[in-house]
Each structure stands twice: as structure tokens, then as C-alpha cells.
Specification:
This protein has 9 helices and 8 strands. It has about 280 residues and is an alpha/beta fold. Helix 6 packs parallel to helix 7.
């Protein structure tokens, strides 16, 4: 059986912090999702380890996630946390997180760029400085963008080749619409060796038969060595149970060689997030 490293999932406790749970249509996932629930879904889906990704712009959540990783007996292999990229003290904030309990599991940073009203937020000097500091600290950066931010994300990737970037949810393509702009954008990103992409979150964007051509393009443009599979659990439960997500990932990669499938399901994420974590650039 292929080793599985879930490259993208979330956890939350709404009695402590509410990420985005008040948005319409999210009632089904408003309960707490913690380590017991993660262990259960990992067992059901044959998940060996995971990458836990931030949900809110709050360092306190990142500290909670690092503690949870320390208590997970290796299940949570890495944490993609949050710091204020616009602040002048990004290196100090990262150092403080690394000194905390579980700090060795900090492997990356993410900010919800898709929620920023300025589509060119990634072009800002202070933001660029913060992301460059992420790279210099030996960490990775998750790009969470939608179509309005695509151009700025491409400029960032070209201008900061020293920072390893991964595009969450393949950039949220319009699965049921015109894919040509997304295809051109993703192909341009794939030409940059510092950019990777996540096979995650797509089943909430359209039916399986329309998602599969998107997956085919991801694998063709980036090759399996720069594609990593993630569940986006528990958000995926709004459209597709976690077990079905992994079955569809399996079906979408059935034509790959064994080594290529191993990369998509674990090797790429491990190399991206875990092999170089904490290595100064």
C-alpha cells in the first residue's frame, strides 16, 4: 500500500477560536475537530502522517497546533502556521514559534491572500519582505489564492526564486467554467522550479468528471515530483467524505508509475515540507 502523507488538512475548536465557521453553508463542520477526530479519519483513510494548516491570522492558533503536533506521536508531522508578513519582526516571530513546545514541527507559513481586498496584496513591499524572510528561515510558503490574485502570485514566484512555494487547491480553478486562463497561469507557474502544487480542495469546486481533467493538467505541467495530495479535511466533508477524496485521488493517479504515485501521495510533500525544514537559505 502506498504511504500517505496528507499534505493539507485543518483542525479547530470553535469554543476557543472560530476560523471561518460563521459563513453560510458551513453548519455541517461547525463542531470541534481535534486530535481524536484526526486519529479516527487517519485510520479510516490509511493516513500515515499529516501537514496541519492554519485557518486564522493568529499566532495563538499556530502555538496550539504546534503543541498538538507534539502530542500526536508523529501523526502531525508538520504545521503550516501564521505570522504577520507585513510586520518588521518576521524573523523574531518565527524564532519565538520555533522555541515553543512543538516548534520543531513548524514547516511553513500561510496567509489567506484570497481574502485580501487588494488583488495585488502580494506585490506590496512589506509582504514581499516578510515572505522572503520565510524563505531565509528555511521554511516554505503556502499560496492560498483565487483568480483575482493569480497574476500577483505569478509575479511573486518569479521575483522570489529562493522561496519554496506551494499553490493550495491548485489556485481554486473554475472547474465548471472556462479553464483556459487557469491553464495558462498554472503552466507559467510550473516553469518555475520553486513552485509546487497541491491536489486538494478541488472536489468542492465541481463534479468528479470535471475535476479529473484539472488533475491531469496538474500532473502534466508539474510532474508528480512537484504535486502533493491532500484531503482538505474537514472542509472536504461539505461535498465529499474524506474516504472518497482519497479513493478519487487514487483513481486519478492510477496511470502513473509506482514511484510517481509514491511521490504524489507522500514523497513530494515530505521533501517540500519536512526534508529542509529549518535549513537556512
Amino acid at each position: 500500500m502506498t504511504v500517505r502523507l496528507d499534505a493539507h488538512h485543518h483542525l479547530w475548536n470553535p469554543t476557543r477560536r472560530r476560523p471561518f465557521l460563521d459563513s453560510p453553508g458551513l453548519a455541517a463542520i461547525r463542531g470541534p475537530y481535534g486530535l481524536p477526530e484526526l486519529r479516527d479519519v487517519a485510520e479510516r483513510c490509511d493516513i500515515d502522517a499529516t501537514i496541519l494548516v492554519q485557518t486564522i491570522p493568529d499566532e495563538a492558533e499556530t502555538l496550539d497546533f504546534l503543541e498538538l503536533a507534539a502530542d500526536s506521536a508523529g501523526l502531525v508531522a508538520g504545521v503550516v502556521g501564521w505570522v504577520d508578513l507585513t510586520g518588521p519582526d518576521v524573523p523574531d516571530r518565527l524564532a519565538a514559534l520555533r522555541r515553543a513546545r512543538g516548534g520543531a514541527q513548524l514547516c511553513g507559513v500561510r496567509h489567506a491572500v484570497q481574502a485580501e481586498p487588494d488583488p495585488n496584496w502580494l506585490d506590496r513591499t512589506d509582504v514581499r519582505r516578510g515572505i522572503a524572510e520565510i524563505g531565509r528561515s528555511g521554511l516554505t510558503y503556502d499560496l492560498l489564492v483565487k483568480p483575482p490574485q493569480w497574476d500577483a502570485a505569478l509575479r511573486l514566484a518569479r521575483d522570489l526564486p529562493e522561496v519554496d512555494l506551494v499553490v493550495d487547491h491548485a489556485g481554486n480553478p473554475p472547474v465548471a467554467g472556462d479553464l483556459r486562463p487557469w491553464t495558462r497561469w498554472l503552466t507559467a507557474l510550473a516553469e518555475l522550479p520553486n513552485v509546487y502544487v497541491k491536489l486538494s480542495g478541488l472536489l468542492g469546486l465541481g463534479p468528479v468528471d470535471e475535476v479529473l481533467p484539472v488533475v491531469d493538467h496538474l500532473l502534466s505541467a508539474f510532474t508528480p515530483w512537484r504535486v502533493m495530495a491532500g484531503s482538505d479535511w474537514p472542509v472536504c466533508e461539505l461535498s465529499t467524505p474524506a474516504e472518497a477524496v482519497w479513493h478519487i485521488h487514487e483513481a486519478a493517479t492510477v496511470g502513473l508509475a509506482a514511484a510517481e504515485r509514491a511521490a504524489v501521495f507522500a514523497g513530494t510533500a515530505s521533501a517540500f515540507y519536512l526534508s529542509s525544514a529549518g535549513r537556512p537559505r
